[in-house]
Specification:
Blueprint lengths: L25 H21 L7 H21 L5 H20 L5 E3 L3 E8 L2 E13 L2 E5 L9 E6 L5 E11 L5 E7 L24
Antiparallel strand pairs: 1-3, 2-3, 2-5, 3-4, 4-7, 5-6, 6-7
Helix pairs in contact: 1-3, 2-3
Length: about 210
């Protein structure tokens, strides 16, 4: 008989939401995520920690987004309210993650081709960047992709190629899918100058 893992919060006897949630029930998982997101936001606004703290925060946000996204899709026991809270957490994670990026982000349209592998073969899609940085880009992608999927990115203007990992994705209701990619084997794929002045948010808003 499989042993039921209980919530690790004192005096809480509810079962853990998932083995990947550090033994927290659904309610305490959501509360803990909100508390940690508040800490991240305070760090961002007040810069109470040294710059070196950005990397652990970035790692937490990535892990949080992956775990919450998995729970929101797989756990039928979640109520509609809890699912809405999970979606809100994902949106906050996305917002905080894009402000933690260390390199400037520039709003520019560069034609690229994306190539990916599936069980049925290779797919290709031509698109254009919306935002770029020294380490990656945000662009539209009609083809379904998964988090952490590796894509080959080809610049149509120079022919330069690099592998990139999908680190963020979002599909608007009735709209196209937007993805964020991070390069795995290219230091400065876009040939950016270190002093690029036009820094923008993920949706073209000045930050």
């Amino acid at each position: 008989m499989t042993e039921i893992v209980r919530c690790s919060i004192q005096n809480c006897e509810k079962p853990a939401a998932s083995p990947e949630t550090r033994s927290l029930c659904r309610r305490h998982l959501i509360l803990t995520c909100y508390e940690q997101l508040d800490e991240c936001r305070r760090w961002q606004e007040e810069r109470l920690s040294p710059d070196g703290a950005a990397e652990p925060l970035r790692q937490f946000l990535l892990e949080c987004s992956l775990r919450v996204a998995k729970l929101a899709l797989d756990l039928k026991e979640f109520t509609n309210l809890e699912r809405a809270q999970l979606l809100d957490i994902l949106l906050q994670v996305t917002d905080l993650s894009r402000h933690l990026r260390q390199s400037p982000r520039i709003a520019v349209s560069i034609p690229v081709q994306l190539r990916g592998q599936e069980s049925c073969g290779t797919w290709e899609e031509q698109t254009r960047t919306r935002v770029i940085s020294r380490h990656g880009a945000m662009l539209e992608c009609e083809h379904p992709v998964k988090m952490e999927e590796t894509l080959l990115v080809v610049r149509m203007d120079t022919g330069r190629q690099a592998h990139a990992q999908v680190v963020w994705r979002w599909r608007r209701v009735g709209g196209t899918q937007e993805i964020g990619i991070e390069f795995l084997d290219s230091e400065n794929f876009w040939d950016l100058d270190s002093g690029s002045p036009e820094i923008v948010g993920m949706h073209g808003l000045t930050t």
